[in-house]
Design goal:
Elements lengths: L4 H9 E3 L2 E10 L18 E2 L5 E3 L13 E4 L1 H4 L8 E10 L9 H20 L9 E7 L1 H8 L8 E3 L32 H18 L3
Antiparallel strand pairs: 1-8, 2-6, 2-7, 3-4, 4-5, 5-6
Bound molecules: flavin-adenine dinucleotide.
The site of flavin-adenine dinucleotide (FAD) has 15 residues, from strand 2, helix 4 and helix 5.
Length: about 210
């Protein structure tokens, strides 16, 4: 079957974003100062508020490089019940490329994970002094992890525009040229993010119901 024109346009407008390295840490509560939050004084440490709690970027030239920008979320600041009393969860992720994690033996892979994780922890230590000493639990996810468990090609984070697109991002809707085959999730309109994919799920369910005449 020929590639539908919509799909061709889509491929011209979007590209695959890199994958990422993910650290899930359990840390002693005293690692975080009492003011750790979205707080203006933290800008002194080159950390900025976003949907994650902090974005760490020491060198703007390396913003899109591997491990250049670190995104930090601390869900237990919002819901302490997510961790045992006296502990916090810190989730960190940063762009990493699939190609850099290819062709490694099991022991090389483990060693590379260790090195990559501790580079990040060392950088975060400047913002959270005592992080290393207070680290109780660490799980490291790599592009290989994300490819395996999320079924994403090359462990990609998802589609990103190739160039500046005018107006609302044009993304595929839920129907495809194959009757009865629907697409849903962050590769369809309106794109990435939990709110967006919830909308996509709602829209897809509605589309199917209409197509079934319900
Ligand atoms: C590190 C990271 C941080 C993020 N932070 C935020 C954030 O702070 N706020 C926000 O709004 N969004 C965030 N996002 C984006 C958001 O998580 C995604 O856009 C959203 O989860 C995508 O939902 P989805 O249902 O489309 O896909 P997914 O959540 O990827 O779900 C797809 C599911 O399909 C399964 N699957 C894949 N292939 C198969 C198969 N062949 N058979 C059966 N099952 C299969 C996968 O295992 C997975 O469970 C983040 C994403 C990442 C990766």
């Amino acid at each position: 079957m020929a590639l539908p024109i919509n799909e061709k346009n889509w491929q011209q407008n979007y590209q695959k974003s890199p994958s990422f390295l993910s650290l899930h840490m359990g840390v002693k509560a005293e690692v975080l100062s009492k003011v750790t939050e979205c707080h203006p004084s933290e800008r002194d440490h080159r950390t900025y508020c976003s949907q994650t709690h902090h974005i760490v970027l020491e060198d703007w030239e390396k913003m899109t490089a591997s491990a250049g920008t670190i995104f930090v979320s601390i869900p237990t600041l919002l819901d302490p019940d997510l961790a045992p009393a006296g502990y916090h969860i810190i989730h960190v992720f940063t762009p990493h490329w699939w190609a850099d994690w290819q062709g490694l033996s099991a022991s090389e892979y483990e060693a590379k994970k260790e090195v990559a994780a501790w580079e990040i922890i060392d950088r975060l230590e400047k913002i959270f002094p005592g992080l290393d000493a207070g680290l109780d639990y660490l799980e490291v996810g790599t592009p290989r992890t994300h490819r395996r468990f999320l079924g994403r090609e090359d462990g990609t984070y998802g589609p990103i525009p190739r160039r500046k697109l005018r107006g609302l991002l044009k993304m595929p809707f839920n129907r495809t040229t194959i009757e009865g085959l629907y697409c849903v999730g962050d590769s369809t309109f309106p794109g990435q993010g939990l709110n967006a994919v919830a909308f996509s799920g709602f829209a897809c369910a509605h589309r199917i119901a209409v197509d079934l005449g319900l």
